[in-house]
Amino acid sequence: MRKSTLFIFFTSINIIFLILLMLHSWTSLRTVGAFLRPCTDIARELQLTDLCLFTEARYTRNPSMADLHAPFQDHPLALEHFPSGSLVTPLRVRPGAL
Amino acid sequence: MIELAHVTKSFNAGRSNQFTAVSDVSLAIRPGRVTVLKGPSGSGKTTLLTLIGCMARPTSGRIVLRGLRPACLATGNETGDVEITSLPERFLTGIRRTTFGFIFQHFNLVKGISVLENVMLPAYPIGVNHRVFRNKALGLLELFNISRHASAPIDWLSGGEMQRVAIARSLINDPHVIIADEPTAHLDTRLSREFMEIIGSFKGEGKTILIASHDPIVFESPLADAVVEMRDGGITGKTDEP
Amino acid sequence: MNRSLERHRNIIDFALSSLLRRKGKNISLLMVYTLIVFLVAAIMFFTHALKREASLILQDAPDMVVQRMVAGRHDPIPINYGKRIAAIRGVSAVRPRVWGYYYEPVVGANYTMMTSDSQAQGTVTIGSGVARTLRLTDGDLMTFRNYNGVPTLFQVQKIMPYESELVAADLVVTAESDLRELFNFPRGHATDLAVTVGNPRELTTVAAKIVLLLPDTRPILRSEILRTYDSIFDWRGGMMIVMLSIAVLSFVIFAWDKATGLSAEERKEIGILKSLGWETTDVLLLKFWEGTVISLSAFLVGVILAYGHVFFFSASLFEHALKGWAILYPQFKLVPVVDGGQLAILFFLTVVPYAVATIIPSWRAATLDPDAAMRS
User: Domain of B15: which CATH number?
Assistant: First the structure.
């Protein structure tokens, strides 16, 4: 078999696969509501403000409730939590706010 | 017929190390015959061959190909004359591809790939059906008795075998003119005589052959119709058989 | 048309033969290239999907959360602040929220404790992550130490569904009185106030009024809550910058290898090709395909693997990186979503510089007369 035939075959299969995956993601759009219902129900009931991603510290667990001082309230030296500290940035201050 | 009129080729023109390889050469190469360029190394034979083979342009002078009517040119005059010195590079390549088959002194085969692929290389950019020219290449390898090496990497072959690959490669596009530069330089007497036999068969097919050599086996061969002596870039003598 | 196709295929044939001459080098180059594309694409898919889920899940967050600040630090808010806020025009409801954090020393995990009116006293509803960490089932008993260190027992009434881990993995929901007693929460105070505003366009106005009325408060709008999650995994964040720099540097190194000019052998080979009748465009096409075979394959395989890793295997490789020191990390599946624009950028980053870096150094040699190329 010619080398170029193999390459074209390989590339076409990959492209088709990629397109199928794109279609997969587009069709999931329809079911996303049902898929996330367990989360949205609880979030609505308890009026949650944050996702539970990083549970090591207050300001990483509830970044939207935190402010620039929150890390310091944990510990005078405010030891960095890695990697969540570098992934979660504190709320940006609205102009005119405290 | 290939006509050269006052062809000169200088390298590094205008600079202190200017070197004139070919100076004021006028020559007519008759079709269907074997012409040999004879002379010591440095006489300009190789340069002249590259000029004729459309691989370089002369610094001054004209080279005309008569009666060849290359298919790649849409407009040629009725007589089929083409002056290659004034052609842009695109057309020059087309002519080189279809009209000339070049056999280099050092073979210039591409290392690392197979013998078969080396032979097929000149035909790649043309876009002819792959199976067609693959079979043609295999046929040529068969003709020169090296088809058993078809899928071997070129590096494994002996000097004589490599030369036969080079010859096969030069034929893949059915050229009218075969140009060979010092073809017997790396061959022993037996292989040199075999080479001249192959040349004889080409001549029998009506091809025009141009060889540069300082090997007596070549220029004293009965097949040589015309012998042109060169020295220091110019022609010093010519013997022509009618 | 056919001729053109055949020409391309022939040139690809030779490009592949050319690459196979240095099999080891090119295969390892391909593998590393694919790995880098995989990492960048996986990060891209993961963060984009997570941000979208955040925006969907948190869309029912309170209109506004009002916190109290004392000496620049967050402090419990008096409930009568809520009464005063409720009197502001535009505010339809104010609900005091009592919630906090509890550190469990046995496993070293942090729980988020919240309250609900529907929770019976002496019972808790726990998140699936808590149940997993302590291996609890319905009806089991949990011990909490109160502010005095005295242990208190609670019975697990319900465990939240596994699919809710993304929001509720570490939640412990109690009755309000239980939580107040556990933490000795100051009476007449709450953690913060959830404010509902009738007209969403009046949010900023109401917030301004609240600050005017109660200068020691800090209102947080829902738009700001959602914006937090838009900027999470921001490329300016420390770890993201490191990953992206590594990727960009790698692409530069790959291209550098090609771009630093041709070796004498390569130049001679181009001369040979030209002497055989290859035009300049044919030679450049060859060099283009030599580069594109590797970069295109790396891109396609890397992106496909990244998609599979993130959406079919829940980004398991990232779990270790993201978990950090946390004991409790949620297990969740992400809804597949692909940002075409980001993918296009990745494609251009991956394929174009490499192709350019392969063609440009060959340009000069490809345009030379074959004679000159072979002599040099």
Answer: 3.40.50.300
Cβ(B91)–Cβ(B73) below 8 Å? yes
Find the closest chain C residue to A11 by CA distance: C297
For residue C335, give the nearest of A10, A28, A44 by CB distance. Answer: A28
List of chain A residues whose C-beta atoms are within 8 Å of the C-beta of residue C293: 7
Q: Find the closest chain A residue to C19 by CA distance.
A: A3
Of C100, C62, C47, C63, the residue nearest C229 (C-alpha): C47
Contacts of C371 in chain B (CB under 8 A): 50, 55-56
A91 → closest Cβ in C127, C207, C228: C228
Domains of chain C: 2-57+232-375 (no CATH), 62-225 (2.40.40.20)
**What is the residue extent of each domain of chain A?**
56-92
* C167/A52 touch (CB, cutoff 8 Å), yes or no: yes
Tell me, what DSSP letter sits at residue B148?
G
- Does a cis peptide bond (omega within 30 degrees of 0) precede residue A83? yes
> Touching check for A78 and chain C: CB below 8 Å?
no
Q: Domain containing B147: what range?
A: 2-240
Give the predicted TM-score (pTM) of the model.
0.86
Grouping H, G, I as helix, E, B as strand and the rest as coil, residue B22 is strand
Nearest to C103 by CA among C131, C130, C64: C130
* Domains held by chain B: number: 1
CA distance C322 to B57: 66
The 3-state DSSP class for residue C209 equals helix
Torsion of CA B39, B68, B169, B111, to 10 degrees: 70
Q: pLDDT tens-digit profile of A8-60? A: 999 999 999 999 999 999 898 888 888 889 999 999 999 899 999 888 888 88
Compute the nearest-CA separation of C42 from chain B (Å).
38
- Tally Cβ neighbours within 10 Å of residue C225: 25
Contacts of C3 in chain B (CB under 8 A): 126-128
pLDDT at C259: 72
Stated length of chain B: 242
Q: What is the pLDDT of residues C73-116, one digit of tens each?
A: 889 999 999 999 999 988 999 999 999 999 988 888 889 999 99
